[in-house]
Amino acid sequence: MSAASPRSVVLPLAVGLFAAGVLAVLAVFGSYAAGLADLPLWLNLATLLAPAGLVVGVVGAVLRTRRG
Questions:
Q1: Half-sphere exposure (CA, 13 Å, Cβ side) for 65?
Q2: What's the pTM value of the predicted model, to 2 decimals?
Q3: Within 13 A of 40's CA, how many CA atoms are on the CB side?
Q4: How far apart are CA 27 and CA 24, in angstroms?
Q5: C-alpha angle with apex 15: 25 to 44, nearest 5 degrees?
Q6: pLDDT value for 22
Q7: Torsion over CA: 24, 30, 33, 37 (sign)
Q8: Three-state SS for 2?
């Protein structure tokens, strides 16, 4: 029997970052649609979590396939 590989924390982290970023993007679009133009800086910066999650996921997948 082969030993089970330990679960990687990278994939859930990447999915969580991406989901938080998408929610922030939806909040920004919803705010603009509601007529709000002066949004807080943290909300605008939170939209950067989506591409960060994508990068973390791709890098994690590449490193995982190179290891095993």
A1: 5
A2: 0.84
A3: 5
A4: 5
A5: 25
A6: 98
A7: negative
A8: coil
**23, 43 contact by CB (below 8 A):** no
Averages of pLDDT over each 10 residues, the chain, 68 residues: 64 96 97 93 97 96 86
* CA gap 53, 20 in Å, rounded: 9
Tokens 């509601």 — which residue?
34
- What pLDDT, on a 0 to 100 scale, did the predictor assign at position 21? 98
pLDDT value at residue 1? 45
User: 15 and 49 in contact (C-beta within 8 Å)?
Assistant: no
Q: Are 56 and 17 in contact (CB under 8 A)?
A: yes
